[in-house]
Design a protein that fits this description.
Blueprint (H helix, E strand, L loop, with lengths): L2 E5 L2 E4 L4 E8 L7 E7 L6 E6 L6 E3 L7 E6 L4 E6 L8 E8 L9 E6 L1
Parallel strand pairs: 2-10
Antiparallel strand pairs: 1-3, 3-8, 4-5, 4-9, 5-6, 7-8, 9-10
Length: 115
């Protein structure tokens, strides 16, 4: 059974940093594409970053490129999103999930950035 538990969100000022973690179970990170997504109030969920099973392929949304870094630790079943130089428009609930996903989503973690 797949389980995804996101944490690390909070309320910060513009320019600050946060580090989000996603602890997974029921997934082998060494054979699964993983990604971070976010959903702002009143908007659809959107892609943020993805990482391939071998860590060779990494991709970012244009809006976060050069500010966010995705990584994972296969042994600890954890996917991490380092977010630097945060902007108010980064405010959203952040989720991790495998790609493609089965429709199951974790509870997410709230990130609020004030100007």
């Amino acid at each position: 059974q797949v389980r995804l538990v996101e944490s690390g969100g909070g309320s910060v000022q513009a320019g600050d940093s946060l580090r989000l973690s996603c602890v997974t179970s029921g997934i082998s990170l060494s054979t699964t594409y993983m990604a971070w997504f976010r959903q702002a109030p009143g908007k659809e969920r959107e892609f943020v970053a993805a990482i391939s099973p071998s860590d060779v392929y990494i991709d970012y949304a244009a809006s976060v490129k050069d500010r966010f870094t995705i990584s994972k630790n296969n042994g600890k079943n954890t996917v991490t999103l380092q977010m630097d130089s945060l902007k108010p428009e980064d405010t959203a609930v952040y989720y991790c999930n495998r790609v493609p996903n089965s429709g199951y989503w974790g509870q997410g973690t709230q990130v609020t950035v004030s100007s």
